[in-house]
Amino acid sequence: QVQLPKKFENPKNVRIALVREVGEGSFFERYLAGAQSMARELGVTLLEATAHGDMARMVTMIENFITQRVDAIIIDHGRPDPLMPKIKEALDRGIRVVTFDLVVDDNRVPEIEQDDLLIGYLISKQLAVDFAGNANVIYVNVGGFAPLDKRDKMWQIIKWRFPGIKEVAKIGAVTGSTAADTQTRMEAAMKEKPEANAVLAMWDEFAKGAVRAIMQAGKSDQFKVYSVDVTTEDIQMMIQQNSPWVATVGTDSYAVGRLAVRAAAALVGGEKLPKYLLVEPQLITRQFLVDNNITNMDELVKALPALGESNLVWPEWLKALTEKNKK
Amino acid sequence: MPCLPNMAVLRGNNLSKKFPGVLALDKVDIEIKSGKVHALVGANGAGKSTLVKILTGYYDSYDGSVTIDNQEVILRTPFDALHNGIEVVHQEVDTQLVPTLTVAENLYLENFANRYGTIVSTRDLKKKAEKDLSDIGFPIPAFEKVENLSLHEKQQLVIARALLHKVKFLILDEPTSSLSLIEAEKLFELVKKLKARDVGILYISQRLDEIQIVADEVTVLRNGRKAAYFEHVPQLSKIVEAMLDSPQEDLFPKKDLRQFGQEILRVEDLKCLNRVNGVSFSVRKGEILAITGLTGAGKTETLKAIFGAIRANNGKIFVNGKQIKITSPVDAIKSGIYLVPEERRKEGLILDKSARENITIPFLKNFCGFLGKILKKNECNHAKSLAEKVRLVPFDIERQAQYFSGGNQQKIVVSRWLGGKPKVLLLDEPTQGVDVGAKKEIYQLIIQVAKESAVILATSEINEAVGIADRILVMRNGKIVAELTYENADSKAIMSYAAGVKQ
Amino acid sequence: MKDRMTNFLLKYGVITALVVLIVFFSLSTRAFFSLDNFFDILRAVSILTIVAIGVTFSVVVNGMDVSVGAVTGFAVIFSTALMVIWQIPWYIAIVGALLAGIGIGLLNSFLILKLRIPDLLATLGTLYLAQGLQMWITKGDAVYRGMTNPWDPMRQVTKGFIPKEFLTIGQGFVFKTENFRGIPVPVIIMLCVVLITWFLLEFTRFGRAFYAVGGNIEAARLAGIPVKKYRTAAYVISALLATLGGLVLASRIGSGAVKAGDPYLLDAVASTYFGFAVLGVRRPNVWGTFLGAVFVGVMLNGLTMLNTPWYIQDFIKGLVLVSALGISFAIRKESR
Amino acid sequence: MKDRMTNFLLKYGVITALVVLIVFFSLSTRAFFSLDNFFDILRAVSILTIVAIGVTFSVVVNGMDVSVGAVTGFAVIFSTALMVIWQIPWYIAIVGALLAGIGIGLLNSFLILKLRIPDLLATLGTLYLAQGLQMWITKGDAVYRGMTNPWDPMRQVTKGFIPKEFLTIGQGFVFKTENFRGIPVPVIIMLCVVLITWFLLEFTRFGRAFYAVGGNIEAARLAGIPVKKYRTAAYVISALLATLGGLVLASRIGSGAVKAGDPYLLDAVASTYFGFAVLGVRRPNVWGTFLGAVFVGVMLNGLTMLNTPWYIQDFIKGLVLVSALGISFAIRKESR
Ligand SMILES: Nc1ncnc2c1ncn2[C@@H]1O[C@H](COP(=O)(O)OP(=O)(O)OP(=O)(O)O)[C@@H](O)[C@H]1O
Ligand SMILES: Nc1ncnc2c1ncn2[C@@H]1O[C@H](COP(=O)(O)OP(=O)(O)OP(=O)(O)O)[C@@H](O)[C@H]1O
Ligand SMILES: [Mg+2]
Ligand SMILES: [Mg+2]
What we know:
heterotetramer, A: 12 helices, C: mainly alpha, ABC transporter involved in vitamin B12 uptake, BtuC, two-stranded antiparallel sheet, 2 strands, globular
């Protein structure tokens, strides 16, 4: 029998806080569901708070959890400058911290990250290869968001590598209704650049808008859309008849949510974790989805196990704990 | 014009209305008969408007009953009153009109509430309005927006509207308080016509001389009670006696001193929009100068231009012989020129603030300590002493301005300027809508102020000008057409100058 | 002569500016001047116009309804959730959403008329409520085919979907011919709303009554106009049009995104006041509101075609709005 | 007796509700009732309070300033950009931001007073402008240490950073003792703003004049109050306080996020009207606004501690707002 850490003799008393920058949308919903399922399996208490994109509110929430003296805090997205001081404060008070998609220059904090450089590379490369190095691309992306910037870096490299790949227009705006706005802008861009034949959208919200614009204009034959992130909603749009959305690259946020809670629990149990917990993204093509009759994330994970449960952070006692709670 | 053959009687029995702390109307009976003009008089705050509001369905609760031809009618909403043929022209007509709509649209406002016709054609509306207005004899442009009309045009519009509704009982609440004599006479003509058409009229006025002209019977209210009823119009002194607690002597106080100091204010060639076309005059210390004329003659504009409230296009203003530049009321006040504006509710008072705050507003600086902190005690004392000077009733300076009666509201506005040292006090229709008692007090006040400074009084009541002024200017079309001194002032002459009969 | 000029500018200043914009964009881009793009622009502003006309009604009765954006978003979530999560036929979902919209309008008028809460405050309360409901219904998720049912403890995948008929509302075309793509359905809906409300407000006694209530509520009351009914109607119409806008939006994006309606609030208020202020009518009016929405739509479309970076589009929008207003008010001021 | 009760409820109803909330949260969570948490809550509402008091000024003069949220966001971006992109000392950045705030306030009053654009419309225009400027300054990026300089054609990495002194504004503490963390600096700033504006509005002739202008502008003018100056002052104060709020926000988040100020608009307006309506004062007032902000802060803090799902917190916020208003207005209505 494996020896459980002292704190986990009664796991209910282990309180893990989850602070998220945003909660709206299927990606984050699935992420939360994953985190909750892991917490349930471990029997720990998960406290959650969502900042609706408001950085000051996120800071306040972390402060609140510090005041409440939780055992660990998972910080999901957000910006380093505002959150760093709070993370340090938490660490100094003996609270463990794990981050997801947030760069923290402190060795005590393991960072979970979907490898955005790789994401950017995989999808850009796929586009270049599909078009044999010659395409007129409408690029949908904005600056100022760390993951989007990382993906952009790789796109620049691909353009440098394949001079025949041309960026004929750049659109995109992050607003309250990004998808609908992108749709409107895409309509205009398509008309202005009739030579365009590919769309590279570095975020699935952008892709949704672009795909809708293309389909509603009846130009599915003319365009191929490449994007990032995968959710059930995205899968549904990809498998539609005539969908121009041919490929996407992403991870399963459900698995990431589980990993985050597990990592936090492991830290509380005294485990040493590596600094970087990189979740490897997978390329998903329309063809693959259609061939395997995939209609949602669960089916996708089954068909593409690499997307599924991460094998990171599984110390013996955590496994034992889940087994124990199953009974 | 519609015609109603059958005679009818509108009767209010035992009407009472209570407000928190005030019994505004206390068991009052009143009877309005078709084809008769029933005058309702009383001091400010006697309850006249309250009675009117009951009869027009303004309040959803009141005590007592209302009958028409001995049939009880229930008046809970304006609609009930309209249904029973009761119409009103309010003291403040603006409450009855929609300023952003046209004359035509306002004329048929009630129709929009009813069921006849869903689609409204603008052109038909205009045609119909033009016809109806010319039938009645009111020359109002049918397509003008109401916000651009003059006060008396608005009044005509409301009366016209009532006539279109085949009104049985028409209530006129101080209809002449802002009309000139000529316009008032037109109104009397109209009242006569209405009488001939068997409309029953309740006529409310502070101008008692009118009562003799138009009324058949008179009811006097005092403190919410019926103080007297006269089947025929009696001598005015009798009415006044019933209105007021104390017997009344002469309305216009005697001015003993007619000696004036040096010139305080001189105005040269003042021009303003196209309403004031080159006005020049001067006043001396101790002098009361009246400016009179018909409505729209430009009196208000003249005073406002001097005060800097509207911009003058041309003209020079000298105070104590020195030319000064006045571009805003702030400048005027600095030079000791103060204005009591014509429309006290709109321009004079901050209605939801206490009398104290309204009184001390222009000279608040004098009661402030470090960082502009108001020294409350000093402020209160100051406000009290001024309120005492004008004999504010009720003497409660913490009461909100809107809960004072019209006359007392006027006193609040006047009293605020007594806190400074006026060199020139400009008064625009200071006694409009004010009862005889309060009127007299205001006249006394004017004479008192005039001892130390000059007073300019704009008034369309010629009697008032003759009664109190040392010198009278008559205005017409933005120009001064005559100047008379108190010795040779005479109402008839003034009237004919004002009307342009005499040049 | 000069007066005439001023008057013309006052009345047609914005239209002139619009024409100038259109000419400019037509000359400087390839695709701007075409029938298809014309309808694209109209389609892009259709939702905004519908919502903004609702706001116009609340402003006509001298009130203000700031809950419209949240109500639009609520309609998006509610209608799609009915179809996807609860698998209810599309027409019932539409009726359900419209009824819910009426309910929200009635709640607004209850708060404003019965409890006498100031309109801005009351509709702010409703705004928070409608926003909260949006998220509650889906527990924060978006609504899409194949989502896990947030209300199912087993978290099973829903079988519902948004059918073609519903999607036609936002994505369909009518009057197709061989050379012509057809007129987008949202444009038809928008034009219907514009024409009906225009007729209602300008040519019927109801319209006069609405304006009378807004111009002087006391006078309207004294004239026997049932002012409470009209004010209630205005808030109900406002919520109803916001809901209609939400339905078009839901159909246009083919799924239910949380808070999708939020951006419409400010733009709708801006369109209403823009139209109010600029057409020289000096009162809130349907065509003015429509024009305000189109103005913004033309600008965004043209700027995108010019490949203007997105981060200065907002600034340009603000600049044009302020200068259009500034000029038109400066002219009016001089003419006084 | 009954009247007394009603009066009490009217005056102290919201305070009572607040106390009930506090007691409830204290009993049902471990950490709610502590000095640290008390200051946490105050710190959480400090920015909102500062911004909302600005709005209160505009409402006092019977106007409305909807640009505050965008101005707050502009101050965040502008101050941090000055420090990070252009490497300017922090105190100059603060002064620069405040001057820019004054500039925006003056622009608002120019549009409203000189050009006579209706206040809602004018400030909406400024809203778009300030929002656009935010994005333009950074070309859509956020401002953070080590960002690439958006204005450098070489796109080099900036060397600027936000110094400790600036961060103290939002993150520091004063009056530390051994057992006590200290009072957060934003709370001190907020209390200063509350006390100063309260003194200004309630006890000085300037405050009297502000209220007079709001009560009846024509009467105030004819009584010799320079109404234009006061209205200008109100809009400048509003923009200035929004800027101050933005500076605290920038310091609190230690970086510049685009549109960070947007959420404050609705909450600030709600606080202002809430305080206006509920305290029984029947006019916009500083303490009421403060109380409105605290009310929301207590609720959000307590709900999070109770681990209420995030997606129903907005709904509860709306529900509490509407019921608090409903009850308090229902009572008032009865007392009439
Ligand atoms: N809504 C109200 N609340 C409290 N008191 C009121 C209200 N309306 C009128 N009053 C009071 O009732 C009394 C009668 O007022 P009313 O307006 O009927 O007088 P009036 O005879 O028309 O006076 P005036 O000649 O000045 O118009 C006054 O004391 C007034 O202060
Ligand atoms: N801009 C305007 N447009 C239309 N009518 C106006 C305008 N300004 C004033 N009036 C109306 O014209 C009349 C104006 O003139 P003014 O006020 O100078 O004359 P007055 O001699 O003081 O008349 P009153 O006896 O009404 O005080 C007023 O009754 C007012 O309602
Ligand atoms: Mg009266
Ligand atoms: Mg006058």
